[in-house]
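Dear all,

This email documents one entry for the complex benchmark we are building for the journal club exercise. For each entry we list the sequence lines for every component of the assembly. Then comes the predicted three-dimensional structure of the complex as a token string, followed by one or two observations. Please use this as the template for your own entries, and keep the labels exactly as they appear.
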Amino acid sequence: MVEVAHLAKRFGATQAVADVSFTVAPGDIFGLLGPNGAGKTTTIRMLLDIFKPDSGTVRVFGGALDLAGKRRIGYLPEERGLYKDQPLESTLVYLAALKGMDEAAARRRLKDWLERLELGEHRRRKIQELSKGMQQKAQIIATLLHEPDLIVIDEPFSGLDPVNTRVVKDILAEQRARGCALIMSTHQMHQVEALCSRIMLINAGHAVLYGPVAEVKRSFAGNAVAVSGQGDFDGLPGVAETRHENGAWHLGLQLGADPQAVLRALLERPGVKVERFELAEPSLDDIFVSVVQSPAAPREAAHA
Amino acid sequence: MPDLWRVAAHEYRRTVVRRGFLNGTLAVPVGLAVLVVIAILGEIAGEDRRPVGYVDEAGRLTASQPAGPDQIEVRAYADQAAALDALRREELQAVFILPADYRQTRRTDLYYLSAPPANDVWGQFDDFLRAHLVAGLPAEAQTRVLAGPQVTMVDPVSGRSFSESGIINIILPVAASFLFFITTLSASGYLLRVVADEKENRTMEVMLTSLSPAALIGGKTLGLLGAVLTQLASYFLASLVGLWIAGQYVPELARAVVPWDYLGVMALYFLPTFGLLTAVMVAVGAALPDVQQGQQIVGLFNLAFLAPIFALTVILENPSHPLAVFLTLFPTSAFMTISLRWGLGAVPFWQLAVSWLLLIGSALAVAWAAARIFRLGMLSYGQAVRPRTIWAALRGE
């Protein structure tokens, strides 16, 4: 459904995106990950034809993105892209009409969405009068109302409480189930683990990880260790991140770091007593941190 | 419905329900209504319908004039004492005395108690007096003398004529041009705010995943144009109704005619000027990171459009002054300068033709540049597009 090949974009002296390639198939939830300023949003904008790439190609629905193709896309930007001074209901109907929906049909379908997301009683209020969470739910409705075949969402859980986060997760899962392709950009790694089938991690404009979530995690096994004991576990060589969780230490290792070397360093450290040392399956969070913080990060790990 | 019209309809609805727009639209009709009501009330409440008396010691007047629907009574008295007694008893509002040497001096003495009679009372007595003075002339001569001189100036270039009685037709275009322009300026300022705002909060990004940039910006411009025309139409209708009502009480206003030639010329200039202004607003709104900075820059551009106001004295004193001609030809100031000059005299055809062509050309050029700057602006959220970058983009680099 989406084929991105060797995409590149430069802004002045900054290479925002360099040689990024990926594909997304119907029924996929594809996670586009990376630190702030990595090039995710620029990639999304090129995908949506908001920017033209300097080089590379984007094929959506089997060809270059035209107006008919754009109407099959639902886009949720990170910031609230709605008319703040307008009533909620009329704004959502207008946006759906711009996507080619009949206004009467949009109004009927909207009624269900508003009820489901508990916005029914606010439908005549101006968007700026809604809370941040309500605005985010309104934005999600705007993204989905016309039943798109491709959904591109940037931080979909921003501003949502745990209950609404769960509702939105269920909605995204439903969209995947009906054969829709989703591209999701978020910093909430646990949501990526729960929802995404495949991911790409972009850092400094380069794709540094790409593949199914399970494979990525498998390839990084050994890149984190769980340690129990006493003493100072901070600042060990080869360790990108140190966390204390549930009475144990979780050490995320830098790319290429040898866990045995970390163990030796621990044992040689004065005052440290190690009671347990075991390789842990890294979370996406660990992988993210180790890849992004590793000085040798880009490119060597690009094909996990 | 094509996207362009859907966006235009949405933008129109969005604009006309804004409080600022409603206030602006209602301000002129309400203001006119208040003025008309005040004028009428002043006429009715302040009108002194008591007769005026006269004493004709020169033997020129022969009778009294009875009161009519629009006329006060002019009452004859045999001598000054009787007339002034009636004035003191407040039976009369004034007494005119034609002394015995009136024929030589043409002097009339007026007596009143506290306030002189209103202008129309003077006018009625003058008419009464003149009618008696010319009574001995043939009927045709009487009519011509009583009508007085009617000077009409005809411009040899355009064939347009200007008469003394048409002063209102000179004032109206000047007032209308200001109104035209303030309306257009405020609407285009709103477009700047919309573009900068939607770029800042990413609404633009969502819209561009449904529409082409041309449909988006074109639709917004058309919607605003509709709103401006609605506002101007409401002003025009209110002015017509106000003039008609006020004309029943103020004779000068009754002689006013709708300046169709002026409206025709302004219609020709209005669209390209609106296009030029909106293109400037789109370019500024897209190039700068927020509304506030946009408004500061736009203030400079507005000066270029409002330049004729600063040259108002020169234009009014000499509408053909080289500065007036320059401002007529310069695209940003053409609309307002021609508005001002139109009521004062003729604008040579060559100036109209050249300035219109220059205006159309510059509106198209700025629209083309605005489209390029808009694309650049979409690339630079949160920061201004640098002038060097704009220049490079305009040169196609």
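Observations: Residues 2-215 of chain A form a domain with the Rossmann fold fold (CATH 3.40.50.300). The interface with chain B takes residues 11, 45, 48-51, 67, 70-71, 73, 75, 77-86, 94-95, 97-99, 142 of chain A (CB under 8 Å).
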